[in-house]
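User: Design a sequence. Structure:
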């Protein structure tokens, strides 16, 4: 076995001093060239990584706005076409009944918008308005009447109810087959269980998932954080994300160091009702943000003296996230669109059962 010298060149290769010197020079040149090539390769890789990082930063600085108005309009068009086909096929259309107790301006606006949306979609609209001092039994009697009405396929009791009325009792009295709000304990219970399918899913959380999926945002295998644990949004949103195979964390008013959890979240659904609570620096770069909040803040430059903002500080978050919903114009339009969708699904199920 031949022994080796400098840079792996076998000893005995050089028979003269001059040959040794020349060989050493050649070896050193080869070594320098290889080192230079390695440096150049490393430099090129670093440049590519830097350029890639710059492109990522550029994308983050231009977070794509998830247009809830446009997506909701698409859903409503789909619903309208299904209603048209149903009417042509069997001469019937879905029916939605809305029960309003009291005269809260925001509730009256919501109910008015729902009735208008039904009219545009071709859905028959029913409604009962009761005074704020209506008794619990009066509200229950109205709900029972709609339960028995074969032309009504969805019943919605506008929340919040006056404090003297037991909300749980009223919502529990709605037929599960007509619970288009998805708040019946049996529907929520089935939503929480693997291998069970609720008849209806709450409209706002359902709209959040629809926004993600129609925007091409993958949910399966992602880390998701839901801020808020209400029965209306936070809790069902977390359960829906789990059903889509996300790993879900729910944070709330008693959670210390909320930014800690958000730093690892690929998907954030904010539903806590606190204006501009979530800051951009809390978020994981490239995450998707669904902002459910709608809060009024004073703004003397606005015509009404205030403006609407979400639970997420939009300006800073849009510089970090890859996708984000605006407020207004994000989740809000989806809630009514999902209500129409639930009503049509309920009508199809009821009519199918009646004809079997």
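Assistant: Done.
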């Amino acid at each position: 076995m031949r022994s080796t010298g400098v840079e792996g060149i076998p000893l005995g290769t050089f028979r003269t001093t001059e040959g040794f010197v020349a060989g050493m020079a050649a070896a050193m040149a080869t070594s320098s060239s290889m080192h230079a090539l390695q440096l150049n390769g490393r430099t090129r890789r670093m440049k590519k990584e830097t350029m890639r990082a710059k492109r990522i930063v550029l994308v983050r600085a231009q977070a794509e706005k998830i247009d809830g108005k446009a997506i909701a309009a698409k859903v409503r068009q789909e619903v309208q076409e299904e209603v048209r086909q149903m009417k042509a096929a069997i001469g019937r259309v879905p029916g939605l009944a809305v029960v309003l107790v009291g005269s809260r301006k925001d509730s009256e606006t919501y109910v008015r918008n729902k009735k208008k949306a039904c009219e545009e979609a071709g859905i028959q609209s029913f409604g009962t308005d009761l005074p704020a001092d209506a008794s619990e039994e009066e509200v229950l009697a109205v709900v029972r009447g709609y339960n028995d009405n074969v032309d009504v396929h969805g019943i919605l009791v506008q929340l919040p109810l006056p404090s003297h009325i037991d909300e749980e009792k009223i919502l529990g009295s709605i037929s599960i087959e007509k619970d288009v709000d998805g708040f019946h304990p049996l529907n929520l219970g089935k939503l929480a269980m693997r291998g069970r399918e609720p008849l209806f899913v709450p409209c706002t959380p359902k709209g959040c998932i629809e926004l993600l999926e129609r925007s091409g945002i993958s949910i399966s295998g992602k880390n998701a954080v839901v801020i808020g644990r209400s029965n209306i949004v936070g809790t069902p949103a977390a359960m829906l994300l789990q059903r889509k195979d996300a790993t879900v964390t729910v944070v709330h008013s008693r959670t210390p160091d909320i930014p800690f959890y958000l730093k690892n979240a690929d998907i954030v659904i904010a539903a806590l009702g606190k204006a501009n609570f979530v800051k951009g620096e809390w978020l994981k770069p490239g995450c998707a943000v669904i902002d459910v909040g709608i809060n009024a803040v004073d703004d003397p430059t606005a015509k009404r003296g205030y403006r609407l903002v979400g639970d997420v500080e939009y300006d800073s978050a849009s510089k970090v996230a890859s996708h984000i919903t605006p407020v207004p114009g994000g989740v809000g339009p989806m809630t009514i669109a999902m209500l129409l969708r639930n009503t049509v699904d309920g009508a199809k199920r009821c009519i199918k059962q009646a004809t079997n």
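The first helix runs from residue 17 to 61. The CA atoms of residues 3 and 215 lie 66 Å apart.
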